[in-house]
Amino acid sequence: LSIVVLISGGGTNLQAIMDYIATEKPDANIELVLSNRPDAYGLQRAAGASIKTEVIDHKAFDSRESFDQAMIEVIDPYQPDLIILAGFMRILSHGFVEHYEGRMINIHPALLPAYKGLHTHKRALADGVSHHGASVHYVTPELDSGAVIAQGRVPVLKDDTEESLEQRVHRIEHIVYPEVVKWFAEGRLSYRDNQAYMDDTLL
Ligand code: GRF
């Protein structure tokens, strides 16, 4: 399984996936980590593990389409089976999403379909929900709306702040994202008609 990871920031999910691959040695390899921000700390995590990195700064492009086209030109030579968005903070054009549809996944810090978009922890706290979490989903043109593959759920505690809740959600992200990558590496996931399926030929 050839993997390309897209990041914009700290890359703790990237780290969790790198750690999983290093310890469990699945049939999976991160060929490239691509960031739209030159200062993303995740680039250092990748370089420290001898993973190839590239930066395509979106500020150097005058349209979303031209930025996305530049990314496709960098990504496609790696012939990725799976594109992992791990804190990649740019909205992707329909053309880009369609190019990789069925082989691109994202992690969103909420129990989708609740709380699409930004500030999910703040909104969950304001609503007083009992549980919050993170969802790994296929990426489709409509933001945070593709088929959900797996979710990690955490309780919301009485004294939670946005920060404490975010930390708890982050910890479950680091468990659920590598687990989904494992399912891909085992060839157990498929995508048809905008639905995610767990296939198990052993059953
Ligand atoms: C995570 O909260 C993820 O849900 C969201 O972006 C954040 C990335 O964090 N999509 P990190 O860069 O992996 O630490």
Automatic annotation (TrEMBL):
Cellular component aspect of the GO annotation: cytosol
Catalysed reactions, semicolon-separated: N(1)-(5-phospho-beta-D-ribosyl)glycinamide + (6R)-10-formyltetrahydrofolate = N(2)-formyl-N(1)-(5-phospho-beta-D-ribosyl)glycinamide + (6S)-5,6,7,8-tetrahydrofolate + H(+)
EC number: 2.1.2.2
One Pfam assignment: Formyl_trans_N
Limits of the Formyl transferase N-terminal domain: 3-181
Designated name of the protein: Phosphoribosylglycinamide formyltransferase
Described purpose of this protein according to its UniProt entry: Catalyzes the transfer of a formyl group from 10-formyltetrahydrofolate to 5-phospho-ribosyl-glycinamide (GAR), producing 5-phospho-ribosyl-N-formylglycinamide (FGAR) and tetrahydrofolate.
Keywords: Purine biosynthesis, Transferase
UniProt keyword Transferase present: yes
UniProt binding sites for N(1)-(5-phospho-beta-D-ribosyl)glycinamide: 11-13
Gene: purN
Positions of the record's site feature: Raises pKa of active site His: 144
Family: Belongs to the GART family.
The keyword Transferase belongs to this UniProt entry's keyword annotation: yes
Pathways per UniProt: Purine metabolism; IMP biosynthesis via de novo pathway; N(2)-formyl-N(1)-(5-phospho-D-ribosyl)glycinamide from N(1)-(5-phospho-D-ribosyl)glycinamide (10-formyl THF route): step 1/1
InterPro entries on file: Formyl_transf_N (IPR002376), Formyl_transf_N_sf (IPR036477), GART (IPR004607)
Species for this entry: Leucothrix pacifica
Residue positions of the active site: 108
An individual GO BP term: 'de novo' IMP biosynthetic process
Gene Ontology MF, one: phosphoribosylglycinamide formyltransferase activity
Binding site for (6R)-10-formyltetrahydrofolate: 64, 89-92, 106
